[in-house]
Specification:
Layout lengths: L1 H9 L4 H16 L7 H5 L6 H4 L9 H11 L10 E3 L7 H5 L5 E4 L2 E4 L1
Antiparallel strand pairs: 1-3, 2-3
Helix pairs in contact: 1-2, 1-5, 2-5
Amino acid sequence: MLARVINAEARGEPYIGKVAVAAVIINRMKSSLFPDTLREVINQPYAFTCVQDKQINLTPNDECYRAALEAVNGNDPTGGCLFYYNPKTASSGWMKQRQSSSRLIIGNHIFMK
């Protein structure tokens, strides 16, 4: 399931961007602000566009599986971020307005704590 989200949310991103998307999901599972399981984090209403538009059902490639495994094994290039968005495609205004002292750009995504 994690590889499917990576495929849908970070397709076309560099490998580190794929690991970063996976790390955000792992970080949410560890945070008291979010559910504890992978399935619950991914299926939270409006959390991931790929769930709403059904792109989560696309078959991930090997790189997505590697990125998922790397994040599960502890690699977090975001340093603990809980949010990300692509400023070119994001339709949710709250994300663009979210104030964060720690913003990190990886590929086309902006990651925030």
